[in-house]
Design a protein that fits this description.
This protein is of the alpha/beta class. It contains twelve helices and eight strands. The radius of gyration is 17 Å and the shape is globular. The chain starts with a strand and ends with a helix. It binds 2-phosphoglycolic acid. 2-phosphoglycolic acid binds next to strand 8.
Length: 249
């Protein structure tokens, strides 16, 4: 069956010494759940974080990557560069990338393909904004986001995909989707995948929820049958809070 996963997205937080401190705090925590644990520091601190987490249960992952294999893209980082330092997973399509860096379904198809070709696992993020939720378009929006970026992939490729439903209105706002709202959307996503790729594949894909997950609400959200973990922003910056979420399973 599918894995439970809790991934911390540090975003543009933590310089080198803060990265070392947080990793060391994380390594002092005790994991009592079966969840895979991942953290995503900034690009510049990935190598140090990988070194510090050797022989631990924490996987260090990237927050983003470029779609091209290499070339004249000043300031960008390629999938191969990530793989070459030992990164095995990248977040792609986070709503902040879509909103502030013009990432679209079209550019994300290319990123997903490039990541998979380079043998990276992908945590693919998507979700509706507040207006879309209010006008009742959220199911259609999510369906088109995943169809456009992922439905060309083979069953083999889907083994390296993790989905992260992150309603934009719940990210960094303190407002969380209710456990029922999360479950309804996750069940819809799984059904959408099952319709085109079959039940076995749909049941094997981990679908994470992201948006103001905290120690106080994680247990209830993770108790829903189609919620297989979380992508955690703010609460991943404190080791105790992050592990309280990891251990909420
Ligand atoms: P948040 O962020 O937990 O701070 O709401 C979630 C995310 O952006 O992945």
């Amino acid at each position: 069956m599918r894995n439970n996963i809790v991934a911390g997205n540090w975003k543009m937080n933590n310089d080198l010494s803060q990265t070392k401190d947080l990793i060391s705090d994380l390594k002092n925590q005790t994991k009592t759940s079966d969840a895979e644990v991942m953290v995503a520091p900034s690009f510049i601190n990935l190598q140090e974080a990988i070194k510090q987490t050797e022989n631990s249960e924490i996987e260090v992952i990237a927050q983003n990557m470029h779609f091209a294999e290499n070339g004249a893209y000043t300031g960008e980082i390629s999938a191969n560069m990530l793989a070459s330092i030992g990164v095995k997973t990248s977040i792609l399509g986070h709503s902040e990338r879509r909103a502030y860096f013009n990432e679209t379904d079209e550019s994300l198809v290319k990123k997903v393909d490039t990541a998979l070709i380079n043998k990276l696992r992908v945590i693919f993020c998507f979700g509706e904004d507040l207006d879309q939720r209010k006008s009742g378009e959220h199911f259609n929006v999510v369906e088109s986001q995943i169809k456009n970026a992922l439905f060309h992939l083979s069953s083999e490729s889907w083994k390296n995909l993790v989905l992260a439903y992150e309603p934009v209105w719940a990210i960094g706002t303190g407002e969380t989707a209710s456990p029922e709202q999360a479950q309804n959307m996750h069940a819809f996503i799984r059904k959408t995948i099952a319709n085109t790729h079959g039940d076995d594949l749909a049941n094997s894909v981990s679908i994470l929820y992201g948006g103001s997950v905290k120690p106080s609400n994680a247990k209830e959200i993770f108790s829903k049958p189609d919620v297989d973990g979380g992508l955690i922003g703010g609460a991943s910056l404190k080791a105790e809070d992050f592990f309280a979420i990891v251990n909420a399973f």
